[in-house]
Amino acid sequence: GAISGYNNDLTKQQTDNTVSQTGLYMKHGMSIISLRAKIQGFIVLDYMKEWSNAKKDLARWVLEGKIRYQKEDIRDGLENAPSALVDLFKGRNKGKLIVQVGEQLAKKEIVSRL
């Protein structure tokens, strides 16, 4: 139970720089209990039956401007890869983060090169 963590030093990081599960419980456990909060994971595959309707709703909402999305965040040049990686881990990218190296070829150019 919770008593096992009463004397833990919650300010200390573990050697692998993670926070212990006991530490997290001791810091937030009573709030979780008193608020009767529930944490539950889910996988999109759990909702495959709803996918057909959801796809239609999402498309309509995009067209109506109710939701917006950006598919790609493109950074040009290999020299920008280090900062792009930092941005990725800090959550600064919008959509999929791509570092584009070299010129982008049209499909016709690719076929003609074959």
Entry summary:
This protein is mainly alpha-helical. It has helices at residues 21-34, 51-63, 81-90, 107-113, and strands spanning 72-76, 96-100.
Report on the structure:
A two-stranded parallel ribbon has the order 1-2. It has helices at 21-34, 51-63, 81-90, 107-113, and strands at 72-76, 96-100. The chain contains four helices and two strands; from the N terminus they run ααβαβα. The mean pLDDT is 78. By secondary structure, the protein is mainly alpha-helical. It is 39% helix and 9% strand. β1, α3 and β2 (96-100) form a beta-alpha-beta unit.
Topology:
Blueprint: H1 21-34, H2 51-63, E1 72-76, H3 81-90, E2 96-100, H4 107-113
Parallel strand pairs: 1-2
Q: What class, by secondary structure content? A: mainly alpha
Listing every helix as H and every strand as E from the N terminus to the C terminus, the arrangement reads: HHEHEH
Which value, in Å, is the CA radius of gyration? 23 Å
| Tally of DSSP helical segments | 4
Shape: flat
Notable traits:
114 residues, flat, mainly alpha, two-stranded parallel ribbon
